[in-house]
Fold each of these.
Amino acid sequence: MVKGERIETKKQDRGWLRIDGEECKGCGLCIEACPPKVIAMSEELNHFGYRTAIFAGAGCTGCGVCFMVCPEPGAITVFRAAVRHVEASGHANAGIEEAISCASN
Amino acid sequence: MPSEAVQEYTVAQGRAKSFYARYARKEELQHQTHYCPGCGHGIIHKMLARAIDELDVQDRTILIGPVGCSVFTYYYFDVGNVQAAHGRAPAVATAMKRSRPGSIVISYQGDGDLSAIGAAEILHAANRGENISVIFVNNAIYSMTGGQVAPTTLIGQKSTTTPEGRRAANEGYPLHVSELLATLEAPVYIERVGLGDNKQIAQATRAIRRAVEDQARGLGFSLVEVLAPCPTIWKMNPVDAQRWVRDVMEKTFPLGVFRDHTKEAALRPASQPAPALDEIPRLLGLAEEDLPTGNGCMLARETNVDLQVRIAGFGGQGVLLLGEVLAEAGLVAGLEVSWLPSYGPEMRSGTSNCHVRLSSQPVDSPLVSVPSVLVAMNEPSLCKFDLTVRRGGWVIYNGDTFPGDCMRDGVHVLALPFTRLADELGDPRAANMVMLGALLEIDGVLPQASIDAALHRLVKNPRWIELDERALARGRELLKDALRRGSLAKEPCAEA
Amino acid sequence: MRKQLMKGNEAIVKSAILAGCRGFYGYPITPASEITEAAALYMPRAGGVFVQAESEVAAINMLYGAAAAGVRAMTASSGPGISLMQEGISYMAGAELPCVVADITRGGPGLGNIGSEQGDYHQVVKGGGHGNYRTIVLAPHSVQEMADLTALAFELADRYRNPVFVLADGFVGQMMEPVEFPQRAIEAPMPAWAVAGTAATRGNLITSLHMGCDDLEAHVLALEAKYKLAEQREACAEEWHAEDAEIVLVGYGIVGRILKAVTAEARANGLPVGLLRPITLYPFPIAHFQHLASRARVFVVVEMSNGQLLEDVRLALNGACPIEFFSRVGGNAPSHDEVLQLVREQALRLIGEERMAHA
Ligand SMILES: Cc1ncc(C[n+]2csc(CCOP(=O)(O)OP(=O)(O)O)c2C)c(N)n1
Ligand code: SF4
Ligand code: SF4
Ligand code: SF4
């Protein structure tokens, strides 16, 4: 995990997603798992021949479900609003507890 | 501060520290795993890496990979990595954990690996309560080899070796490893989890962390069975495969905790501190005080000895001990010696015999095929070996009368009811020492002190030492009497 | 006096512990069980690990684990158990893990019997497991050598990062002779390649898997280079009255002892007999054979198996000298008289040939 890595955005969402288009194999599990359905499959193939998951760019709650269902270690990185993150224990475990509460399937 | 339009985000979920950033041991495509899209192994790897991170045990972790699709765990985990033979990871883990008790040893295995070829190894590691964590990936099939039936394949499920579907009559029923191992006393924690939906995945994450944590706390054996999708072999898309775990597999393999002794488990006893190196010889019984002393009973150098003895009788008559006392006495007296037993079941019943050599030269062959003395403690032994005795040699026989068909020229015979004579001394079992006394008197070279020393080394019970000493003395007398009376069965003939 | 009367099987364990062995993983079998029993007693005392495994398959894989963790470890068994261990031995050779395996041989094939035989020669010396590998094989013929060669076995195992066998027959395992041990115990160094659950060893990997064809080929060639080095450096044999021998007796283990007695008697009768006793069976002491072949007129191979040693002698002599063969199996040892008789016949034949040559 890239500790302390930060990104900036104009959006006011609780969460933000980054998908590594090289590592993603396009299995679609994250798309199925995401409660607010903010991940979709790309139309284009990446240069390894996979269609890959892409983030809609808004509406992410930062629940982390997509991360846990994804079979690739680093294909997905979930970001959360800094304020909330600092309040949380700092343990990534907090994310998964939340994942259960907002699991929709 | 609502005037701020820019909001900051930090990483909440990302690549675990216990994964390599790039898979340098992989030949190609080093930026992604070798697993198929949607494979359960990748998801489980992430749970394990996360547990290692959270428990802060990365440096201490030894991950043992199986043979199966997850054979390459070492591509991904930045921990100590060991690749084991098919099914043997629990045996490897056993020795690694015992050799390095401070390490965290994780055995990662598939269902073919663990429940078929490695069934014995997992059962016994669990039964010994090894303090290891086992991640058992049950995808109901042999995936790596292309989809053959596994012990965990569902009834009716098709595989390349059950083309019409698994039938109980032919392949038996799906093997419930968690339930089976939960019948054992030793395991601390056994749970079956699934990767069938978000909720199951969350529970699986907790279970895997718990399995590692229990080990870190020193509690003992834990195993987490994970029902995992194999979309490729199942011929399903990844999402359908995930649902199949929940909707179909789970019916055969119910999820749940089958053993949880986490609260009441006692800490496994820490291993004893290793002794200092200089202590080792003494601990092995090799210290100066453990060595036989030849003080006062060493034979003069020029004494020429070549005693070749065969001792035979029923098991329990003390045949081997007789030989051992003789050999030990020879060693104490400064001779070269050897003692070679017949061994095996015949020691328990049946006949028993041993070869003893005492010589002033290095003993070439410890096998005595032509004895100079035969000690026969019963008739079958006499009949078996009497013809081997060399001319001019001796037969000491335990019996009133010497069997006529064993009579032959050129061999001295001392035939006496040694068992009865020993009984008169207090115990018939001392017959072997009476016979040894007679044997020692024949040759006469071994100093009595060497016999005493040998007896004290080999016999610990003082009552027996006292009895044996009397028995030896009696044996010596008996031979002297016989010589005096000239009552030996055959006259010796001149040596060629 | 520094010697103690001891069984060969017990001497192995004491020597191993003195040599720094701190792990024993075994499964009982006659005639090797005393090794496992002695290890159960002494290994924990010395601060080592003893486990009676559920099978020889498990035992050898435990050895794999102990060796991977950087600990000197050993096991002991006999034919049926050694058969089961072949998988693990191949893996250990492939993963370059050192270990010592004592095979106290008994009769085979199958359950055979518990008598002393040498029928495991092929599976141990030629490598009974799969793949291109060898194991170094030491063949003691006395209790003293049981101790000495066990210590050497640990050294060689570490030096070559490879399994090393102590191959002894049931007689040598079961017999007692006076034996002397070094008075100091060794602390085995922790190898840098081990996986020990520490920060320093975190980057290490133990595996026999090499997916790429070129990778595996390079690995196999590296192993082979190691074996070649062992062949140059470690081959060892005892020559006993052999320098001027015209009849060279060949045998290892207990047979070597029997042949010493035969040689002594034959020499006393004026026959030009000597003994060549291989101590390492792999590497096979080829140089000794070639050296003695320059003078010898016949080699007489005696073994307690059906011509298994004979094959290596043939390869070593490569036609340089005629070979006669005598064997007993099933738990029988070749008797002194049987071999002596054979030696006499050979002597007569050689004299006859000489006469013909001079006639
Ligand atoms: C002794 C031995 N027998 C057979 C094989 C071939 N083999 C490799 S993997 C495997 C089955 C693996 O199945 P499983 O443990 O379920 O793992 P998966 O591939 O499903 O993850 C087999 C039979 C082998 N490597 N070694
Ligand atoms: S973090 Fe949650 S909401 Fe955001 S994309 Fe992932 S699953 Fe969807
Ligand atoms: S789960 Fe992972 S691999 Fe699968 S589509 Fe989503 S990002 Fe890609
Ligand atoms: S075959 Fe199955 S178990 Fe193997 S990598 Fe593919 S999906 Fe995973």
Amino acid sequence: MSRLHILQSKFQRTILGAEDMLEKEIVATERLSVDRRIAIYAEAYRLRLTECLRENYSALYTLLGDEQFDALCRLYIDAHPPHHYSIRWYGDRFAEFARHTAPYSGHPYVSELAEFEWKLMEAFDARDARPVVLDELAQLAPSQWPGLRLEFQPCLQRVELTWNVAAIRNAVDEGRTIDSPQRGDRPAAWLIWRKRLTQYFRSLDDTEAWALDRARDRATFGELCEGLCEWMPDREIATYAAGLLKQWIGDGLVTKIQTDP
Amino acid sequence: MHNNEVRRLPNLGFGLGLRTDHYDSVIAERPDNIDWFEILSENYMVDGGKPLHYLDAIREHYPMVMHGVSMSIGGADPLDRDYLKRLKALAGRVQAAWFSDHLCWTGVDGTNIHDLLPLPYTEDAVSYIARRIKQVQDFMERPMLIENVSSYLNYKDSSLTEWEFVSAIAERADCYILLDINNIYVSAFNHEFDPQEYLDHIPVERVGQFHLAGHTNYGDYIVDTHDHPVIDPVWDLYADAIRRFGAVPTMIERDDHIPPLRELLHELDRARDIARPILEEIAA
Ligand SMILES: [Fe+2]
């Protein structure tokens, strides 16, 4: 290991709080002690990451308040130092961490809100793809329908939410006072996406969630219709399924209608 | 070892660091007293959405240079090839006049501290870093500028002054220097050296860009916070720098407590007002 590498490893471990080996390496002056000089870096490190997490998880930060949120940050920062070259990706395991770390693990809305906010971020700067327009559906011959498959926006995110975390995030975004966390009867399906520059999210009923997930798994329109038998009378299926397609296209979710087998 | 064949970088004039807070004002007002923008490279190393949308829209009207924080040119870890590929793609996208990063390291053993960490000023570090800059410049096919950082500690290992260190690396790597006037002021205070002496030892033809910024004075040390206007002693040092280095593209960095665009433009006009008479005097 080079001398530079040794020195940098020591410095980094000191900043991370793992050891304190820098005393021998650093010049003290009358005005400023070595401890203080190191603390400037160590404190800046934690502050910068905490600020980043406050931004990435703005609703969770508002919900928990400074003290509780920063306490969670401290634990997370110690457990997960950053690795990515961009600080934008810091906090990618925040939800998972909160899910498994007491006392947050006892309040599942914490990890659920974190997961929801992270997915919003992923939608924010995901790759742009041109959505198809409804005209493209109209141009299909009836014989092409059963075999068609869809491709979806790279920004599209699905999440299951048991708590009212979407409402909490909405309230924070709009500067309203937030409701206290409330648990629903069962997990509900939510869809997150971006249309041009604006992020959207909405809940899905069970049927649409099932169909959307299958369609994203490359099921054909025919296969979707077959599966929908379980949910509704046969005579309603074709209209319902076509309606879903139009809705998805209208929401800008679909980037390609593929008709070749 | 001054190299007289160094070609000076073009004078782009007076610019600003592009910040998300100003996207809409820039597009709506398209001010003509900003000559160029410096973008924070990592903010645009994403796949799509708002960042790239605004980047392209603003690039249509203003030249851009790139400024990165994560190359870790002084770090002991190998250079990050994926990072450099993305950086190069971005440089192509905005047709960057040049790209810069800091003369520092940002983490080691796979960790990124997301800070501009100080280097020991040694001969070994000079040759190690110069070699890496050459590799980066060859890969990027664009001129690289290295920026002097604000620092809060010095290593016992250091055998050179900071200005000797910066100059030696620029000469040996055949790259340029982004001279941050505020960082000189901050480090001079924190390490008790004479900022004027620093300026006097930087090779003139190597300096391709100036940064100006505000800072926070805590009494016994100063932190480079970029959250205040530029202070008078830094303006004075800027005047000295113009006297020595001539017409060098100048910009203001503001990263916190970001004021409305017109306020920053007002501050930028002050830079113009300081530089103009000095340059006229030199020309005469
Ligand atoms: Fe700077």
Amino acid sequence: MIKFENVDVVYPNGYKGLSDISLEINQGEFVAIIGLSGAGKSTLIRAVNGLVPYTNGTLTVGETVVDPKNKSKLRKLRSKVGMIFQQFNNVGRISVLNNVLIGRSAFTPTWRSLIGWYGSQDKEVAFQSLERVGIVEKAYNRAAALSGGQQQRVAIARVLAQDPEVILADEPVASLDPPTARKVLGDLRTIQRDLGITCVVNMHHLDLARDYADRIIGMRNGEVVFDGPTQEATDSVIAEVYQRPLSADEIRQARGDGRLGEHIENPTEADLTQAVPAVEDGIERKDTV
Amino acid sequence: MSTAVSKRSVAAASAQGQSRPRPPSPKVPPYLGLAFLALVAFGLFCWTWEGDAVLFFPLGDVVLWAPRDPLIGLIIMVMALLICFKLRISPMGAFGGLALIAITYWAGSNIHFIDRIAEVPGRLTGGNTRQQLLGYFNPDWSYLFLHNVAGTSRPIWGEWLITLCMAVVATIIGCFIGLLLAMLASPVSSLNKGTSQTIKAINSVVRSIPDVAWALLFAAFIGGTAYGLGALAAVLALIMFNIGIVAKLLSESIDAIQPGPLEAADAAGANLIQRDRVAVLPAVMPSFISYSLYVFELNIRASAALGVVGVAGIGGELSRQIGRMSQGYENVGAILWALVFVVLLVDLLSLWIRRKLL
Ligand SMILES: Nc1ncnc2c1ncn2[C@@H]1O[C@H](COP(=O)(O)OP(=O)(O)OP(=O)(O)O)[C@@H](O)[C@H]1O
Ligand SMILES: [Mg+2]
């Protein structure tokens, strides 16, 4: 469904966000991407719908090659690739229903959007989406007046209104409390399974990734360092994804310089013993419901 | 005065033998430099001063003297430096203060501010000021409500209606065009960088021409009151005036909106117009309403000033009455009081609308 072939992303300032990524994500899969802050998770996800233009290689979604330069082709692609954000990104001052209708933009004539007169078909889709995420009774409330969990549900409904083939989610539950995070993620998982949508989700919480994903991709320094089914993502593998840059960072801070290349290549005994407990702490931290 | 807190903290401080850090005191040499600068400025003041008043200082045998105004300037500068030193202000800050005083002195002396202001009491008591004031405070209300505009059958209060109508039309059209231009001017909502820069440049030009100049231009192009087009010229002038204000203020509001919802609209495949409509417009709507109400208020006031260039509305009548002031001030007084009253009313109205809408 989504195919990366030797994809690079170089940011305008010269920073290499992704280097030589080759991946294939299948139809209907729920993939969690994990990795330290700055590993390139957001970059990877945003490359898929062209919010971040990739600079080398080939990126294909379905049958379409993502072409960051061609705006109208990009809009067409985006109409079937929905995106959910950590900060929900709803328009606070308008109603929940109108927020969901933003998801219909690509299917609505411009003049209808302009005067805010959506067709009954579009409204029907919007209401169905709201029913799926269980907040249809809030349809005419202002979006800003909802709780975080409800707002993220609005965002999911907005994406569902696009009738998407792919849902990209950039840390969708990082701003929510643990029980709400589980509920929202559970809803997303159910919907994704029911409708056969391919789902790529960035996550900081390992336990959530393990509980909800079919497959886990670990990233570090703009590269994929682990890729396998959730069962294969054992503690030691996860530690591998997190461990070395962590210790290298610590060493860099202590030393006050930026040379961490050699440490990534040859971790010392000390690195391993220091880093592993820190990672295990992260795994220990289960949600208390 | 000793509170529980002060007692406790005194005890704690003495127990640990700690002293509080004091702000670093500024070094003397930079301040001497500043004092020298003040002297240089004093020299400059003396050199450019055209008056001849002198102050004397008898000091024992010698008598020092200095030109009056520059000396006052010097004394203020030295005092300011001393205060800055006492307050431990950094030399850079003190330099700023010094520069402010010097520039103010220089600008004021160029327009003979002090000399002129000293003449004001004399002017107020002499001449016909008393009569003018009496006229203003005894406005002729019957003129405002019962009389017609000289030489026509239009009542004076009708001119007020025309003014209000001009303001309404100009506000609605001007603010709408201003909204469109603001969308094009902000890089956040515009087509591309080039468009945004171009529109910004055009907008600066529109804004740099004052409303009275626009009125003169339009009156010259399409004809003023004499041809029955005065109201049109005034409305067009106000529209240009409003476009300038709204486009500028609103495009800055657009620059500052949260990027998140825009990104969400982009990610949903919305085109530029849809994105601006669903994500940008709701975010700036409160500012837009606020600016529009403010602009309406400005229009009422501006239309009084526009009368001077011979366009319609109460402004035209006001300038006619000012031209005829030697026959009495009661009419001008009535118009000015009514202007204050109408502007206050509009202000209250916009306050109410704002409270209802936002
Ligand atoms: N617009 C940009 N210009 C230049 N560099 C960028 C830009 N956006 C991100 N980067 C860099 O790319 C790297 C990867 O960023 P990315 O946002 O993908 O990380 P992430 O894995 O999502 O981190 P987090 O978990 O904190 O969200 C970072 O080092 C970041 O500094
Ligand atoms: Mg990120």
